[in-house]
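Shipment paperwork, digital attachment
Item: protein structure file
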Amino acid sequence: MDQTLDPRLKEAMTEHLRECGTCSKLIQEVELLRRQLNEIPQVAVPPGLVQRILERTSGSAPKRSLWVDLVVPTIRPFLTQRYAFGTGIMLVFVSLVVSMIGPTFSAMGYSDLSPSNVAENADRFSDQIRKKWAQVKTYEAKVAGEVKLMKEDVYGRLDYYLINLLFRSYSQSVQKEDQKKQQDTKGQAGGK
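Attachment content:
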């Protein structure tokens, strides 16, 4: 129905649908349902609807404040478990990066704070970051390759399953047709 099948599979499916009344009826029902769903008009919520409902049901408009209107909606997403977990991981990552490649403050002296030493340390620090970033990119490429292989494997297994299902259904319909032809032949032979 979405026209996304491989041409060979589509051809086999079309052939099957010509012969199998159950599957073709199912396809027709789903197409009808999709058309009916597309015919349902979209309803837009008029502006101020909530306010008018509150005024009519409670008799008074809710009190507005900067805290409720601005601060709470801004903070609320950060109070969820997902953001808390992400923030925790980010803090751990930053602390690990700083401890691995960052400056060691206990070994620093006043001479290390001279402009030339600060620039030299900054250059060394940026070189370390570039090297680590290159390692991260290499690892990311490896992971992307593995994910691609996993996707191909999953899609291959899914294709295999669908094709087996299609051929099983096709062979069942062929067997039913053969049985029907045999019964018709027996019926004609018995009627003579």
